[in-house]
């Protein structure tokens, strides 16, 4: 099939059967025990969610439908052979579990183009906010305004049967993914480029066109944008943004409502906003010493200063990972290839040596290694996207490509309303 929806339609009965079999034959199989630590510790280590697109291994990191990042770089189609994977390709993979051909990816690119027009009232809703509002606030406002065109909400109100819920969810998810770059680029140009908007270039792919609408046409930046979107798309289901999207969608809130909620979680500094915080922190180090060429001793001193003031070192640590994030590693490889002499890149490389031993000394940090956010900022900065307050919007656009497919599967598999049980402090004490 060249058409993604037809491909999916063929897969759904098979997946429904698999889930039905698990429920009827294996419903009582245990996946682990729930401990007091889990209840008090943000549910770390508690397996409690079905997520089809990807899984994170603590040691190895992300696999998208079983594929590592190097696998994706090797096997997913790019603009040219050997180029970075196209975001359309990871979208196809996450939704279907199959590696798409170049023709399938091109057809999906076309499909997204035909869905990409954003109604004018979306821009007007954003314009109602002060230009000084944070880019994530403006972006999420745009997503809420896109919701006006929700097919799911319309069809559900007209009495759509449950078996067909996935169809308007597909429409909404694909329209959302297709329209986000224009909304996100509008926010960037409104805040940082005097509102001078750049129209989309229909000859370009999803990632290339987003970079173009932001104002960047350097082919290397376009390649980085494709890689960036691909690696930020999905990180299994338990991270704050993905989990939020799933949770909010389970009472049948449509994909726009669910994704806007996800973005609000992504805007937290311990989650997606960390990419902004990393560059801010790096700039503060450079400002302190007046140069990016900083000695190891000086760096150590600055890290201790950050920790002693009760702050975290942004870009380090993770809720699941216990080794360097492979998303960090692939960005490092990209930087080594294209910008090895950039002083900010060299500073980031040095931090990777200096930060982990200091975090380990604290004795409480479970993962002292760098995560995805430790690296993205210096690459964006190198290509001219210097306004770090915008970085989380890029993460948000990318995350729609992981969240959208799961929302479609949630409805196709008829997954129920999420409603875990909570416990009072008194009850917990009594049990203990
Ligand atoms: N700098 C200083 N302290 C840290 C760091 C860090 N980078 N990472 C963890 N800790 C502390 C943490 O604050 C906690 O302290 P306390 O008990 O006093 O509250 C202690 O170490 C134990 O935390 P962990 O169990 O290691 O980490 P947890 O799973 O709770 O949190 C993060 C994971 C990612 C929230 C945490 O590592 C962190 O705050 N990192 C810095 C922010 C960041 O880079 N976030 C981006 C994550 C990736 N993403 O894009 O979402
Ligand atoms: C993510 O990409 O969502 C982050 O690495 C956070 C997480 O996985 O918990």
Automatic annotation (TrEMBL):
Query: What Gene3D superfamilies is this protein classified in?
Result: Citrate Synthase, domain 1, Cytochrome P450-Terp, domain 2
Give the matching SUPFAM superfamilies. Citrate synthase
State the UniProt keywords alphabetically: Transferase
Entry GO CC: mitochondrial matrix
UniProt GO MF annotations: acyltransferase activity, acyl groups converted into alkyl on transfer
- Quote the protein name from its UniProt record: Citrate synthase
Biological process terms in GO annotation = carbohydrate metabolic process; citrate metabolic process; tricarboxylic acid cycle
Family to which the UniProt record says this protein belongs: Belongs to the citrate synthase family.
Signal sequence annotation: none
Active site positions, chain numbering: 271, 318, 373
InterPro entries the record matches:
Citrate_synth-like_lrg_a-sub, Citrate_synth-like_sm_a-sub, Citrate_synthase, Citrate_synthase_AS, Citrate_synthase_euk, Citrate_synthase_sf
